[in-house]
Specification:
Blueprint lengths: L11 E5 L6 H11 L3 E5 L13 E5 L3 H10 L2 E5 L7 H14 L3 E6 L5 E2 L2 E2 L1 H9 L5 E7 L7 H5 L3 E4 L5 H11 L13 E5 L4 E5 L6
Parallel strand pairs: 1-8, 1-9, 2-4, 2-5, 3-4, 5-8
Antiparallel strand pairs: 6-7, 9-10, 10-11
Helix pairs in contact: 3-4
Length: 210
């Protein structure tokens, strides 16, 4: 495999792929090679991140536990409880993190969970607009890019793609990259990585599975 991309402090990335395409596996792999402390907001309750090194999984939005984990661990997974899954609650969590911490990364493993009626909340918008200068990184994953705010794509430094079944989703990826490769159905777990600043596209085979 070619040298993998990393998400440096202050950079923002989105990866889209259908259920089972390997998004969470790719995210876990990329988070390990990307510098800094990361908070993983896990509304879909995936277990994919549990074996990250130096990680603590917190059940529910427990602010004292989250603070302690950020101080003591490189990775903090927050798995919200059923009554904490509203977009407003998750966006308030993002707002709190970006207000209290600099030099930190936030990974959201399902971006439409932090959207309401197709719009991002103030916390997510704040992360994307001010995070660069505060060295706050962002890594967002989604099954349905067609459901996301255009703002997320316009503010991203990197746009990644995996297998997408629906044409609307593939067209959305093409619209924000201009790369026809995003219109094709990719082989299982293969992925594309588009860098906005250089207008370059790289293709990768599946990442190793531990």
């Amino acid at each position: 495999m070619a040298k993998p991309p990393i998400i440096n402090p202050g950079k923002r990335a989105i990866v889209a792929g259908r259920t089972g395409s390997g998004k969470s596996t790719l995210a876990k792999w990329m988070l390990q090679v990307s510098p800094g402390h990361w908070v993983i907001i896990n509304p879909k309750n995936t277990r994919a991140y549990d074996d990250l090194p130096d990680v603590l999984n917190i059940d529910g939005i427990d602010i004292p536990k989250i603070k302690k984990s950020i101080e003591e661990h490189r990775f903090t997974i927050i798995t919200p409880k059923a009554n904490e899954l509203s977009p407003e609650t998750l966006d308030l969590l993002i707002q709190w993190i970006i207000t209290d911490y600099t030099h930190i990364g936030i990974c959201v493993d399902e971006l439409y969970a932090v959207h309401k009626n197709g719009q991002a909340g103030e916390g997510l918008i704040g992360l994307l607009t001010r995070g660069r200068e505060l060295k706050q990184s962002f890594f967002g994953l989604t099954q349905r890019p067609a459901w996301l705010s255009k703002f997320l794509f316009s503010e991203s430094d990197y746009i990644g793609g995996m297998s997408l079944n629906l044409e609307d989703d593939r067209k959305r990826m093409f619209a924000f990259t201009g790369k026809k490769a995003f219109l094709e159905k990719l082989p299982e777990r293969d992925w594309l990585w588009y860098e906005v600043a250089t207008d370059t596209l790289r293709a990768f085979n599946p990442v190793p599975i531990d």
